[in-house]
Specification:
about 300 residues, 14 helices, single chain
């Protein structure tokens, strides 16, 4: 099967790579992608970095198979193939370079397959579901599209208890929501609306306003409501920062502050995310990182 190669990082899929070759690939792939921050910062304990690269490579491939083909039917076919590769990995027969690298991480930290499977189910859902009537339905999507990432991070940090996972879920849902509100216009161009339809109706906002990039006081009120609700999710997850290793805490706090800053930027531009996408500047990212150097 011919598959897209994320980030155009060359890789030989005609043979099963050695573990060292596979891990080199996940490092190169991870370093080629930057979201609001580097995937693996130098705050992270050195012994964990390769494992983070391996997990990120799985997420990156899953996301690209879902979003980069331009054809939902083709994406569903590829995601089904990827699920088969995941099952092969857990059966002890990894073939794809990502899974050759990831197998060592799964074994080292005894990671169950559920978080990886949940992520795939969210990517599959993206191929057919483009609207969310209620916030609870959107929250269910976040449970599978965002929360598993936090749980994987906790496994890598050596944490498996339900309380930390619950706190992590709140933070990850908040990060996902902040990303949705940041990308309202971009998502419309992809045919998706993540703003709950019940909230649009309550505020008197029509989808056509997003299409036309037409900001109104009603749309501003809608975004104000979503931003404040997302702040509450961040607040619910904050206690987690005091319950993890200090070195891991630095990265978790960096991402939390990054998400909160996105909400601040939305507020500062009057909640108008239709005419301008709020983004962290390079200077803003540096300031956040410098804050983490302070005692």
């Amino acid at each position: 099967m011919t598959t897209p190669l994320p980030a155009n990082i060359p890789i030989d899929l005609s043979r099963v790579l050695s573990r060292d070759e596979a891990q080199d690939y996940t490092r190169r792939l991870s370093r080629a992608h930057y979201e609001n921050f580097s995937v693996v910062s130098w705050f992270l304990p050195k012994e964990l970095r390769q494992h983070f690269f391996n997990v990120y490579a799985y997420c990156r491939w899953s996301d690209d198979l879902a979003d980069e083909t331009g054809d939902p039917a083709r994406s569903l076919e590829l995601l089904d193939w990827w699920k088969g590769e995941l099952r092969g990995c857990y059966a002890g027969h990894p073939k794809h370079p990502v899974f050759v690298a990831l197998a060592a991480t799964i074994e080292r930290f005894n990671i169950p397959s559920r978080p990886f499977e949940d992520l795939l189910s969210a990517f599959v859902q993206d191929q057919t579901v483009t609207r969310y009537p209620t916030f609870e339905e959107l929250r269910d999507y976040c449970r599978r599209s965002a929360d598993p990432v936090g749980r994987l991070v906790l496994y890598l940090g050596g944490y498996r208890d339900e309380e930390r996972q619950r706190l992590s879920d709140s933070t990850c849902t908040a990060l996902q929501l902040a990303n949705f509100w940041q990308d309202v216009a971009r998502d419309w161009d992809k045919g998706r609306v993540y703003l709950p339809l019940e909230d649009l109706a309550r505020c008197g906002v029509a989808e056509e306003q997003i299409r036309d990039r037409r900001f109104t006081p009603q749309f501003g009120e809608l975004m104000r409501f979503e931003v404040e609700r997302t702040r509450q999710w961040f607040a619910e997850g904050l206690p987690l920062l005091k319950q993890v290793d200090r070195r891991l805490r630095r990265d978790l706090e960096l991402f939390t502050r990054g998400g909160q800053t996105v909400l601040d930027l939305i507020e500062r531009q009057g909640y108008d995310v239709l005419s301008r996408r709020p983004v962290l500047t390079k200077a803003g990212k540096v300031r956040l990182m410098l804050l983490r150097l302070l005692p």
